[in-house]
Specification:
The protein is about 65% helix and about 15% strand. By secondary structure, it is an alpha+beta fold. The chain has a three-stranded antiparallel β-sheet with strand order 1-2-3. Helix 5 runs antiparallel to helix 6. The longest helix is centred in the middle third of the chain and has 48 residues. The protein is rod-shaped.
């Protein structure tokens, strides 16, 4: 295929700087047939026609603007990813806490206890440590109460 025909049948989109020196540009070539090509373009001693076309079409200021948009989009994507990751971690933590609370209430002494305050503290616990602490307290209290009841009989 003739190079002029290739250049005429495409549009250059999304140019951004590939290095801080602004000597290399990453962009996409969009062809009429729907094909897209990621390209890195640099000027050469002989003169690169793609570089010349980029400079003529966009100029340094246009590429600077495109690069700023690209950086902002990357920043937003990273923030979204971080928020999704945090939400997933919180959901997993809530699920683990819920399972631990269910386990605590499966223990016979906890199940049989009439101590509404400690049971409530187990339900409201916001960490595994709190669940363990309040469950242990309740069990110890129930065992102590049961021991006293046996001695009194």
């Amino acid at each position: 295929m003739d190079e002029d025909i290739i250049m005429e049948n495409r549009e250059i989109k999304y140019p951004i700087w590939a290095n801080e020196e602004k000597t290399k540009i990453k962009c996409q070539f969009h062809y009429e047939n729907g094909e897209k090509l990621e390209a890195s373009v640099m000027d050469t001693e002989e003169g690169n026609p793609d570089w010349a076309e980029l400079m003529e079409t966009f100029g340094v200021e246009g590429i600077d603007a495109s690069h700023a948009i690209y950086l902002e989009e990357r920043k937003k994507a990273a923030e979204l990813h971080e928020a999704q990751k945090k939400e997933k971690e919180e959901t997993e933590k809530a699920s683990i806490l819920f399972a631990a609370k269910l386990e605590a209430f499966e223990i016979d002494e906890v199940k049989a206890s009439k101590d509404r305050i400690l049971k409530s503290r187990i339900r409201k616990a916001s960490s595994i440590m709190e669940i363990s602490a309040f469950t242990s307290l309740l069990i110890m209290k129930e065992l102590d109460t049961n021991e006293k009841d046996k001695k009194n009989k």
